[in-house]
Structures are given as structure tokens and as C-alpha cells.
């Protein structure tokens, strides 16, 4: 009896069209990309297709995963939300785990240009910003489909990019230039139209045509000084029409990249100037796409030949940043990105070319290439240590070094670590402390290379034929796999695993189009499939190349005989077991238009006779009765075992029969037994039927289809027939559903397909090209007893249910070839229980990956497969079981495993400052060893104002040095002078002020300012006067000028207070970091924290990170408690106690926190952990402790 598989398949895709260039790698570890009207979800670790989403009627152009930067608990669990947009303007928000649409959004009937989920609000995670052509940006509530606001602009909007450091800043790439928006807010549309700037392409420079060598290219591009201006460029210059991409750099604030086919321009938005150019030579391969990294200042670049390259910014050790030091006469003129690694290119043809690239956002050490032929190639970065002392390195190229720390904590040479875990664990920071780093540490040089770790193959170009393997039954349930054979037009047969989408085998058999007849044993052995095909292919090849084309092949139900129908040649009957020709019909034999084998045969009766004969022979050879009983039982068992084996291994030739129709519509019935083929009966044609094109036979039902779309149902037992005109075109194929008693019938026409109930002779469902769908059906088959699989001319294979609609599959119900690590598929309690178990196990003597003490059996069953998947990765397992792997490192590792953005940022900063501040305590503030460690291992600059003050100051000095080198106009010079004044570099600022030309309108003011800066003293009267002038200027709208004057007299703290009063919070934090001492800077940042926690701003998560950078760990624990982040708070308190960050453990808030965490552990099923934390909570956990121990005491009393 046939059964329905729990995971019958997700569908397959092949070649995509020119609009399918959208793909996205989410924090969940899954890759989503569009192919025609489908959205595919692929597991990045195993390259298996986990979900196929079908609801769009047009080609998908954009896909975006929802952000995961929020705290997860039972109320806000891990979820898989995806937004996809198509060329008709429809946006669908999916629940990917269940395959259902949460809401649909439609504003206009034009393609969506771009869209992005918002991430800056703690309160709402459902906001989606989309660009609707030609010039609208619309903010949607993606949970309800409600439009919150809409804003139009003057130019056509091509794409946009959010500033990762300031969510109120947004840049729109338009057809003429860039529009910078500085007042973006989820609550209302931007009030202004933004600041519009124009950008001239590098090609507009006459010197660009003189590119010859590498140095020549760079020199020529350096001459392109002004790229951003407020004036529209001349008509003859090339503008942004050939700009492929615009994106902010997430690794450092106020930098942006512009991608052109042959250049990548790095812009400093503080001075609106190009500070870096990555140029390709005339013979080089142009760029297609670039993805900037967050953890390191690197770029993943995709080229037109499918090659992915990684470029990392070269460290600049020549800039020392000493105050008032003369700049180097020949410093590095720009940011240089060195090529560090590149993968192999693909073979590009007219139909095969790279479409898009995605990068892992969690670890930034993997990239996936989506190719136009449906392939997904996953490349992973691997690091290797050269083993040489860096001081002995003679390489002229700037080397990369291994980082000092692993998972946020400095580790020794013999401690367990996984260098390839993420990009920041593979290579250290490049722009650290210049030569101090190299002199103070023995670091190892690192080399990077790409390895292909995953490949998902696509379908061939249509047309192709498909055939599903025999169905799932009670006999083959242990070995069954949903195997689909695809025959191509070039003679190959591709064998796919339909659930995972992986290609198992590719058999190159023929040199022409393949017609598939899939008849294999129920063991579903792939080698058996290959054996069948190769036998037949070899036999056909011996007949020569002048044979006529095969129109049809039909294998009998017992796999004994094969009927071959030729185009211009009589029918042939073959013995499949021996590959011999049994009979070739005479020349006057009727032309066969349709043929089908009968499911009935006499094999059972033959087996009974053979079994009886063998039993009789066995009894005759036995002497005693006792031996009879023992031998009889063993003989019968042996015979039963033989019976269960393949009938082809036995010398039994069962009688089978088939029917076929001639050109005149007459039905012929033939019988085949052994070597004999007999003509049994002939049935005259039905006058209502045209030329018969196909036949299906199951049980007592025989169905015929003709060229006019008529179906004729024959009940052989009742000897009645019934003709049904479908009023559709030629019936190309009819096939019964598998399963005993299942009389569903699948009929395929030129313009679609139908499902019929042959018992009731009634149509169940229908699909029609041009009406229900936009594609044309090429072939159909039954996937399971209640699902069909169809191939279409858009190069896809789809799985539909009985209603002929796309089936919704739950991702957690499928049986994959290889277990996929995706905790988002677990039920919320199971996902959080797995996370809690991996994070902390204080109730165990040592860490374990075996859950034996969880109270809830359902959760334990859910977690078994995930521990198997985790155990398969030996490196991760080794780290988790290492007793020296600290709690902070464990939290960071689990955050990466879960793809939890919020946890990753929190524990990165917490680990850094808990370790660095605990190192400072026993030593003196002037201890040079601590200073050196802070110089070698500072917090990454991607965290901006959360970094240490000295490192932040150094980075800003390097930045202004580069700005000064790149200046070319008076406006640039003035901006550089202003920055130097704020940084305290007065001598260099005076030099720039004195460079103002006498013809310039600002000559007099700049001269006076230079005099003021030079002669300013710290005396009381002068300070009072300058402070009064500065205050008046600020009150009259001259905020920047007033702040400069206050900084001149060392009143930067007052300047920060004024900046905060006028809403310039980020600027105030910047100034505090570069000019104030630790105490004054902390006061400024604490006021910023209060502002972030206000209801109007509601960015408490950001406020917690600022408090971590200040070392206010007690305040952090209290805020986490007030925000009900009990699990994170309890683990943070545990880490603080281990580092000695808390003086006492009996604080009331901490005790209550442990009580709440104990309750959450109880909810997740960890009773021992709940008892442990409840006992630590004192009075706050007394009631819970009694409640936890009560059931156990009752059992003892009973």
C-alpha cells in the first residue's frame, strides 16, 4: 500500500531570467533568492533546499530577511520572516517555517526598486521601507500590511542605503545624483526633501582615458578630485547612470562606497571627497557587486566572470598622530585595499553568468554565488598561519596577522580556539597602534584562501521530461527517498533528491533528447537506476546510428518486458532481464499511438506453485518427524526471504499483457509470457473519440485520451464506458495516482493539467496556462498519493497538492539527507531550551551535549537531532566541552551559532570591557603593559564611540590626515581646519587657515581666526570673553562656530553640553571621546544614555552598550532586569562575579534577577538549574524553591 511521505519535496529550479538578481543571506544562516516567481530558501551549511515559496504571479526582484537584533524569549521567539517583492509591485511577507504568507502589500503595479527592514526601534520590529517607482518611498507595517507614511521625491529612485551608525540618516541613489536624508523617522515622513548632491563618474575626467599600468590608473584616478558637488554636472559628462551600487561602510562612520563597472570609490562624507579608489586595469574583469564587511574594513567583490575576491584595507603605520606634528611630506595618499584572496571563476556563456553574491552577515567568512543556470556555489574563507616571526618577514606587501583574542578574550598559544569561526577571529585589526603592536607582540602572519564547501545544482535548460520513483510503501519505508529523474534534451539523466534539492547522480547516456520510463525496484538504489539505464543504452548503441527515433518506451509492471514504439518502425518487445529482443512486429503491424501495460499478472499463482513444489521436495528429503519440523520452519523462512527478493533473480516468467491503440482508434490486447507474444483481443474504435494519444490502466479502470481533449473511462468489470469531453486540447499524458484504492487521475494537456476522480468520473481540480499560471507545463507525474510534480517551460519543477495549488510545507517536518542546524525551526520553548543548555550548565560538574535531566520529553525529542548536527562539527563540539572556555566566550559562540545579532553585539562589548577593566584593577593607571595590551587589542572601530578613547582619538587623527591630503577646494580646506581645531591640532589648523587666497571672500575672517588660535591664552579675561562670544553665537544659530571657540579655551565639556541641548547627540559623543578626560567623557555619555532611554527615542539596547563601554556593569544589570531580559541579565551577572566586577552578591536586584531566571529555567524544563538559581536568590527565590521541591517530597511520602 502506498503511503504519503512526510516530506515529498520542495520543488527544483533551473535557469533564471534577467530580473532574478535578488538574493539575501540572513542572520538565521539561510540564503533566500528569487527564481522566476519562486522564492527559494537554502541552508548555507549543507547547501540543501529547505523551502520553496510560491505565491507571486510575476518574477521576484527583491528578497530581504527580517532583522534579528532583538532579545528573544517565549513572547518574542526566534522566527523566520522574509519579505519578497516582484516586478508587478507586490510585496509578500512570509512565515518561512510554515511556508505561508503573513500579509501582502501592493501600492503600484511597477517593480519594487529596493526595500529594507528597519532595526533601530526596540518597540517595533515589523517596519519595512520600500521604494515604489518612480519616486516614492513608503513605510509599511509588514505584520498587518498597513501603510504608515509615503514620501515622494523629484527624481527617480534606484536604491537606498541606511547609515548603520545613525538610523535617522538615509541615502537615496537617484538617476541624477544622491539625496541625503537626515531626518528619517518611523513615526512620520521626512519633512524636508533632503540634501541633493551630484556625482560625476570617473570616466568624465579626460585623464581617465590614459590608463595604462597599475600606477598610471591610480594616478589618473587621483586627479578626479571633486566627485560630490551641489552643482549639476555638465551635459557631456557621464553621471550616475553607470553607477551600479551605493552603500554605507559598516566598518567605520561616515564612509560610503560607489561601485562602477571598473572602479570602487570610497567617499569620506565629512568632506564629500574620494579618499580611496580600487581600479581595474583595461584587461581586468569588471565588477558586478560589492559587499562591505562590518568586522574588518574589507570588501567582498563579485566580478563578471563569477570570481569572488576579498580586499582588506592596508594598515597605515606611517601616521603616528602625535599632536601638532608636521605631516609626512609623502604620506599614503588614499585608502588602499589589497587583494587577499580570490576564488575560481566560472565558465561564462550566453546562458551562464553570475547573477548575485551574498555574504554571511554573522561571521563574514563565507560568500555564496548565485549563477543564472540555477547553481548556488558556497565559498568559505580558510586561514593558514605562515609560522614566521613578523619581525623577520621580508615581504613587501602589507601582511595580515592573527588576532590576539578569540571570542572576545585574549588566549594563549595552547588554548583551544577556532580561527576560521569568523573574519575578526581570522585576521587582527590592521590600523591599530602602528609599530607599537609589532614591537610588543609576537604575532603570526595569516594567509587566506577560498574553498568551495557547498554546491546546489540547478535544473538543465527546458525542455525536459520527469519521472518520480515508485511511491512510499510499508515495504520500502526504511529505504525510501523521494528520488526524481529528469531527462534532458542533450541526452543526460539527472537524479535529484526532491526534499533537499541536491543532485545525486548525473548520467550521460544518450546524445539526443531523453524519454524517461522510471521502473525500478522499491529499494530505490541509485546504482540500480544507473544499471537499468546503462544496460539499455549499451544495447541501443549496438543497433547503429541509423535507427528511427523512439517515440515511447513502456516497462511492464513486473519489470520483465519492455515495449518500444518507434516513429517509422513497427513495435518491438524486449526482455529487460536479458536485454534481448523477444519480438519485432511485422511491417503491416498497426501504427501505435498509445500503449499501456496491465497491472494484473499471474506471478502470485506461479509463486504459490513453486513454493508448494519446493516444500514437497524438502519433506521428501527429511527422515525423522523432529527433523521435519525444524527443517520445515527453516526452509519456509528461506523461501519467504527469497520471495521478498527481486523477481528478476528468479527463473519465473510471469504472464503480462498490454493494450495499445492504432491510428484508426482500434484497441489491441496482447499477452507476453516468456518468449511468446500472443494477440488476445481487439476492440473496435469508439465513434466519439478521435485519435488516441495516451492510455492509463489501474485495477478495473482503463482511461483513454485523444487529440481533441476527450477522456474515455472504461469500467472493465462492469463492462461500461463513459466519454467526457474536456473541451481542451490534445491529451498528452494521463497517469493514475499511486496507492491501493486511489483512483485519482492526472491528465496533462497542451495548455495545462487536471486531476480527475475516476470512480466518480468527476474533475477535482485544474490548472491552465495563461489563466492560473504564467508558465506552460512540459511534463507531469505523481509525487506522492496526494501531490503532483510538474515541469514547466520556465525551467522549474513544482510540487502541487490535489487542488493544483502550491503546497505549503513545514520546514520542521522534512527528512533531509544531512541534518541542518537551524534553531529557528524549533518550537519556541525548544529553541530557548537548547540555547540555555549550551550557554550555561552550572548544575553539571562538566559541560555536556547530552540532555538527561530535562523535564519535558517533547523538548528533549526536539533537541536530539540538533545535538547530532552540533556533534558532527568536531571543532564547535570541542570548544563547547572545553572547561577552560569561559562563560563570556561561550555566550559569544552561541550568539554566532544562533545568528542572534543583539546577543552578538552585547557579548562582544561586554567581554571586551569586562576583561580589559578587570586587568586594570590590580595595576596602576600608568602601567605600560596594560596600555600596550589596549593598543594591541582595542575594541573594533566598527563600534565607533563605544571604543576606548585613545584608540578613537588615533583613528580620528588618521582620518583628518587623509582628508588634509585629499583636499582640493577651499570648502574642503575649511572643513579640515575645523576638524583639526576640534581635535586640538591647532598648529596644523593655523597653517590651513593661512592658505586662504586673498581673492577669497573668507580671507579676512580666516586670517583673524588664525591670529585668534595662535594668540589665545588661558587667562581669565580672555576666556570669559571668548566664552561669552561662543555662547552668543550658539544662541544665534552658529552652533558649530560656538563649539569651536569653546574647544579653543579647553571648554569642550561645555561644548558637548550645548551640542546635546541642540540635539546633536552623536556629535557630542564624538567630541567627548576626542577631547575630554575619562570622567568628563563619562558624564557626557551618561546624559546620552538618559536620552536613549527616553520614551521618544526608545533605544535602550543602544543605551546598554554605551553603559558597557563606560564600565557601569551594575547599571547594565539593572537595566536588563527592568527590560525583563532575565536570561541575559543572569548570565551577565555570573560573568561579572567571575571577573570581580561586583563587590557583593547580595544586592536585592541581583537576587530578584536570579529568582526570575530560575523561573525561566523551570519553564524550559531545567529543574536542576531552576533549583540551583532559586537557592542562590535568597528570600526572593524561597517560594520558588519550595514549589520546585514539593512534587518530589509528595512522591517520597506516597
Automatic annotation (TrEMBL):
**One Pfam family, short name please?**
Beta-prop_WDR11_1st
Query: What keywords does the record list, in alphabetical order?
Result: Cell projection, Cytoplasm, Cytoplasmic vesicle, Cytoskeleton, Golgi apparatus, Nucleus, Phosphoprotein, Repeat, WD repeat
| Cellular-component GO terms for this entry | axoneme; ciliary basal body; cytoplasmic vesicle; Golgi apparatus; nucleus
**Keyword Transport in annotation:** no
Q: Which residues form a coiled coil?
A: none
Q: What does the UniProt entry say about where the protein is found?
A: Cytoplasm, Cytoskeleton, Cilium axoneme; Cytoplasm, Cytoskeleton, Cilium basal body; Cytoplasmic vesicle; Golgi apparatus, trans-Golgi network
For this UniProt entry, what is the primary localization, expressed as one broad class?
Answer: cytoplasm
Q: Name one GO biological process term.
A: cilium assembly
SMART domains named among the record's database cross-references: WD40
Domain WDR11 TPR: start-end pairs: 958-1137
Enumerate the InterPro entries for this protein. Answer: Beta-prop_WDR11_1st (IPR057852), Beta-prop_WDR11_2nd (IPR057853), TPR_WDR11 (IPR057854), WD40/YVTN_repeat-like_dom_sf (IPR015943), WD40_repeat_CS (IPR019775), WD40_repeat_dom_sf (IPR036322), WD40_rpt (IPR001680), WDR11 (IPR039694)
**Stretches assigned to the WDR11 second beta-propeller domain:** 549-784
Whether Cytoplasm counts among this entry's keywords is yes
WDR11 first beta-propeller domain boundaries:
28-314
Name the job this protein performs: Involved in the Hedgehog (Hh) signaling pathway, is essential for normal ciliogenesis. Regulates the proteolytic processing of GLI3 and cooperates with the transcription factor EMX1 in the induction of downstream Hh pathway gene expression and gonadotropin-releasing hormone production. WDR11 complex facilitates the tethering of Adaptor protein-1 complex (AP-1)-derived vesicles. WDR11 complex acts together with TBC1D23 to facilitate the golgin-mediated capture of vesicles generated using AP-1.
Q: What is this protein called?
A: WD repeat-containing protein 11
Amino acid at each position: 500500500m502506498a503511503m504519503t511521505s512526510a516530506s515529498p519535496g520542495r520543488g527544483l529550479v533551473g535557469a533564471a531570467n534577467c530580473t532574478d538578481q535578488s538574493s539575501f543571506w540572513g542572520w538565521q544562516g539561510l540564503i533566500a533568492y528569487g527564481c522566476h516567481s519562486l522564492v527559494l530558501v537554502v541552508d548555507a551549511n549543507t547547501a540543501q533546499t529547505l523551502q520553496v515559496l510560491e505565491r507571486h504571479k510575476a518574477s521576484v526582484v527583491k528578497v530581504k530577511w527580517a532583522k534579528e537584533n532583538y532579545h528573544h524569549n517565549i513572547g518574542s521567539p526566534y522566527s523566520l520572516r522574509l519579505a519578497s517583492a516582484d516586478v508587478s509591485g507586490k510585496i509578500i511577507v512570509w512565515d518561512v517555517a510554515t511556508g505561508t504568507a503573513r500579509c501582502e502589500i501592493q501600492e503600484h503595479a511597477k517593480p519594487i526598486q529596493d526595500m529594507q527592514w528597519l532595526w533601530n526601534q526596540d518597540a517595533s520590529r515589523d517596519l519595512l521601507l520600500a521604494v515604489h517607482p518612480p519616486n516614492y518611498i513608503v513605510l509599511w507595517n509588514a505584520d498587518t500590511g498597513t501603510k504608515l507614511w509615503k514620501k515622494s521625491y523629484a527624481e527617480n529612485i534606484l536604491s537606498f542605503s541606511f547609515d548603520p551608525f545613525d538610523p535617522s540618516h538615509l541615502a537615496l541613489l537617484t538617476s541624477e545624483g544622491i539625496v541625503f536624508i537626515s531626518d528619517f523617522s518611523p513615526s512620520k515622513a521626512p519633512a524636508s526633501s533632503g540634501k541633493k548632491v551630484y556625482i560625476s563618474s570617473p570616466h568624465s575626467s579626460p585623464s581617465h582615458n590614459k590608463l595604462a599600468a597599475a600606477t598610471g590608473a591610480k594616478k589618473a584616478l587621483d586627479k578626479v578630485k571633486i566627485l560630490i558637488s551641489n552643482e549639476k554636472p555638465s551635459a557631456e559628462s557621464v553621471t550616475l547612470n553607470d553607477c551600479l551600487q551605493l552603500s554605507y561602510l559598516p566598518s567605520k562612520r561616515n564612509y560610503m562606497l560607489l561601485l562602477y563597472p571598473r572602479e570602487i570609490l570610497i567617499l569620506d562624507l565629512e568632506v564629500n571627497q574620494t579618499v580611496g579608489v580600487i581600479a581595474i586595469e583595461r584587461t581586468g574583469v569588471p565588477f558586478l557587486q560589492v559587499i562591505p564587511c562590518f568586522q574588518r574594513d574589507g570588501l567582498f567583490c563579485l566580478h563578471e566572470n563569477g570570481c569572488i575576491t576579498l580586499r582588506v584595507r592596508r594598515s597605515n603605520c606611517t601616521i603616528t598622530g602625535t599632536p601638532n606634528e608636521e605631516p609626512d611630506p609623502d604620506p599614503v595618499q588614499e585608502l588602499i585595499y589589497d587583494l587577499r584572496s580570490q576564488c575560481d571563476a566560472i565558465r561564462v556563456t550566453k546562458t551562464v553568468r553570475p547573477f548575485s553574491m551574498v555574504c554571511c552577515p554573522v561571521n563574514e567568512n563565507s560568500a555564496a554565488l548565485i549563477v543564472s543556470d540555477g547553481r548556488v556555489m558556497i565559498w568559505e574563507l580558510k586561514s593558514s598561519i605562515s609560522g614566521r616571526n613578523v619581525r623577520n618577514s621580508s615581504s613587501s606587501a602589507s601582511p595580515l596577522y592573527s588576532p590576539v583574542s578569540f571570542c572576545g578574550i585574549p588566549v594563549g598559544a595552547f588554548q583551544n580556539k577556532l580561527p576560521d569561526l569568523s573574519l575578526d577571529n581570522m585576521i587582527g585589526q590592521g590600523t591599530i597602534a602602528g609599530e607599537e603592536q609589532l614591537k610588543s607582540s609576537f604575532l603570526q602572519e595569516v594567509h587566506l584562501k577560498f574553498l568551495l564547501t557547498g554546491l546546489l545544482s540547478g535544473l538543465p535548460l527546458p525542455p525536459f521530461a520527469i519521472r518520480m520513483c515508485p511511491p512510499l510503501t510499508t515495504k520500502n519505508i526504511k529505504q525510501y527517498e523521494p528520488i526524481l529523474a529528469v531527462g534532458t534534451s542533450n541526452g543526460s539523466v539527472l537524479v535529484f533528491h526532491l526534499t533537499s534539492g541536491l543532485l545525486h547522480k548525473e548520467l550521460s547516456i544518450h546524445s539526443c533528447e531523453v524519454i524517461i520510463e522510471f521502473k525500478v525496484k522499491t529499494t530505490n538504489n541509485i546504482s540500480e537506476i544507473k544499471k537499468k539505464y546503462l544496460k539499455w543504452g549499451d544495447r541501443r548503441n549496438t543497433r547503429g546510428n541509423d535507427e528511427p527515433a523512439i517515440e515511447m518506451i513502456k516497462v511492464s509492471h513486473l519489470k520483465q518486458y519492455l515495449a518500444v514504439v518507434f516513429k517509422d518502425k513497427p513495435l518491438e518487445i524486449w526482455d529487460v532481464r536479458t536485454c534481448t529482443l523477444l519480438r519485432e512486429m511485422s511491417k503491416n503491424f498497426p501504427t501505435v499511438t498509445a500503449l499501456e501495460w496491465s497491472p494484473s499478472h499471474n506471478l502470485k499463482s506461479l509463486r504459490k506453485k513453486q513454493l508448494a513444489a519446493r516444500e514437497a521436495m524438502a519433506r521428501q528429503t527429511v527422515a525423522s518427524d523432529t527433523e521435519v519440523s525444524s527443517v520445515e520452519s527453516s526452509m519456509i523462512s528461506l523461501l519467504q526471504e527469497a520471495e521478498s527478493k527481486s523477481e528478476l533473480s528468479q527463473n519465473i516468467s510471469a504472464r503480462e499483457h498490454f493494450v495499445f491503440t492504432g491510428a484508426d482508434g482500434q484497441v489491441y490486447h496482447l499477452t507476453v509470457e516468456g518468449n511468446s507474444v500472443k494477440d488476445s483481443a481487439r476492440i473496435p474504435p469508439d465513434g466519439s473519440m478521435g485519435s488516441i494519444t495516451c492510455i492509463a490502466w489501474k485495477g478495473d479502470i482503463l482511461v483513454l485520451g485523444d487529440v481533441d481533449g476527450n477522456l474515455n473511462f472504461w469500467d472493465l468489470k462492469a463492462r461500461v464506458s463513459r466519454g467526457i469531453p474536456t473541451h481542451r486540447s490534445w491529451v498528452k499524458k494521463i497517469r493514475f495516482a499511486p496507492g491501493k484504492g486511489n483512483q485519482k487521475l492526472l491528465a496533462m494537456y497542451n495548455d495545462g493539467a487536471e486531476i480527475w476522480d475516476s470512480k466518480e468520473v468527476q474533475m477535482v481540480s485544474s490548472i491552465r496556462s495563461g489563466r492560473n499560471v504564467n508558465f506552460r507545463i512540459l511534463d507531469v507525474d505523481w509525487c506522492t498519493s496526494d501531490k503532483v510534480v510538474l515541469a514547466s517551460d520556465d525551467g522549474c519543477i513544482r510540487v502541487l497538492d490535489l487542488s493544483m495549488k502550491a503546497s505549503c510545507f513545514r520546514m520542521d517536518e522534512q527528512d533531509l539527507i544531512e541534518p541542518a542546524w537551524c534553531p529557528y525551526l524549533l518550537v519556541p520553548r525548544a529553541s530557548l531550551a537548547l540555547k540555555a543548555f549550551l550557554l550555561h550548565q552550572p548544575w553539571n560538574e562538566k559541560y555536556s551535549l547530552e540532555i538527561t535531566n530535562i523535564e519535558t520529553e517533547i523538548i528533549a525529542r526536539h533537541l536530539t537531532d540538533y545535538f547530532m548536527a552540533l556533534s558532527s562539527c568536531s571543532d564547535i563540539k570541542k570548544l563547547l566541552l572545553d572547561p577552560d572556555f569561559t562563560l563570556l566566550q561561550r555566550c559569544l559562540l552561541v550568539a554566532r551559532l544562533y545568528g542572534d545579532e543583539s546577543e552578538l553585539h552585547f557579548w562582544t562589548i561586554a567581554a571586551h570591557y569586562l576583561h580589559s577593566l578587570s586587568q586594570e584593577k590590580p595595576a596602576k593607571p600608568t602601567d605600560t603593559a596594560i596600555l600596550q595590551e589596549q593598543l594591541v587589542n582595542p575594541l573594533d572601530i566598527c563600534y565607533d564611540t563605544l571604543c576606548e578613547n585613545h584608540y578613537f582619538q588615533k583613528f580620528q587623527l588618521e582620518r583628518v590626515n587623509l582628508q588634509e591630503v585629499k583636499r582640493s577646494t577651499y570648502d574642503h580646506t575649511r572643513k579640515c581646519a575645523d576638524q583639526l581645531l576640534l581635535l586640538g591640532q591647532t598648529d596644523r589648523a593655523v597653517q590651513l587657515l593661512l592658505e586662504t587666497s586673498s581673492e577669497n571672500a573668507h580671507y579676512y575672517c580666516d586670517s583673524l581666526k588664525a591670529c585668534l588660535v595662535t594668540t589665545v591664552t588661558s587667562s581669565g579675561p580672555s576666556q570669559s570673553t571668548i566664552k561669552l562670544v561662543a555662547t552668543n553665537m550658539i544662541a544665534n544659530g552658529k552652533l558649530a562656530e560656538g563649539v569651536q571657540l569653546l574647544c579653543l579655551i579647553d571648554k569642550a565639556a561645555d561644548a558637548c553640553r550645548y551640542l546635546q541641548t541642540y540635539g546633536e547627540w552623536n556629535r557630542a559623543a564624538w567630541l567627548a571621546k576626542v577631547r575630554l578626560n575619562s570622567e568628563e567623557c563619562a558624564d557626557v555619555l551618561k546624559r546620552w544614555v538618559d536620552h536613549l532611554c527616553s520614551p521618544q527615542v526608545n533605544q535602550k539596547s543602544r543605551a546598554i552598550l554605551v553603559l558597557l563601554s563606560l564600565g557601569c556593569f551594575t547599571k547594565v544589570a539593572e537595566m536588563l532586569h527592568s527590560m525583563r531580559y532575565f536570561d541575559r541579565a543572569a548570565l551577565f551577572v555570573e560573568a561579572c562575579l567571575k571577573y570581580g566586577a561586583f563587590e557583593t552578591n547580595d544586592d536585592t536586584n541581583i537576587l530578584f534577577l536570579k529568582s526570575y531566571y530560575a523561573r525561566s529555567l523551570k519553564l524550559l524544563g531545567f529543574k536542576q538549574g531552576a533549583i540551583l538559581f532559586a537557592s542562590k536568590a535568597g528570600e526572593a527565590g524561597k517560594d520558588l524553591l519550595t514549589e520546585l521541591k514539593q512534587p518530589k517530597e509528595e512522591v517520597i511520602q506516597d
